[in-house]
Design goal:
By secondary structure, the protein is of the alpha+beta class. It has 2 helices and 5 strands. It has a single domain, classed as Ubiquitin-like (UB roll) (Roll). The longest helix is centred in the middle third of the chain and has 20 residues, at about 30-50.
């Protein structure tokens, strides 16, 4: 199945554009999508979404079709054909 993935800032630079179509098997979850994208886009992508000490996914703001999900609690949320997944990294500074 195909989902759209939207990214910003560093992730957009790694993917080469702000929105891509990404193919995964039907019934897979948000966590699977992120893991699969780490394999596809390599260390550059993985370093943006994983804690370097623990290897766990950092607190990200994730949207599926505009509905808010959290990387620390909602990675097992199933995805469906045509879903639009937005990945937003936390911001530093003020």
């Amino acid at each position: 199945m195909k989902v759209k993935v939207r990214t910003f800032a560093n992730l957009r630079d790694i993917l080469g554009k702000s929105e891509i179509e990404y193919e995964i098997e039907q019934g897979n979850s948000l966590g699977y999508l992120l893991q699969n994208m780490c394999q596809t886009y390599g260390k550059s992508f993985e370093h943006q979404i994983r804690d370097p000490l623990t290897g766990t996914i950092i607190p990200l703001l994730l949207l599926i079709n505009g509905k808010v999900f959290r990387s620390v609690t909602d990675l097992d949320t199933p995805l469906n054909e045509g879903d639009v997944v937005t990945i937003m990294l936390p911001f530093d500074g003020g």
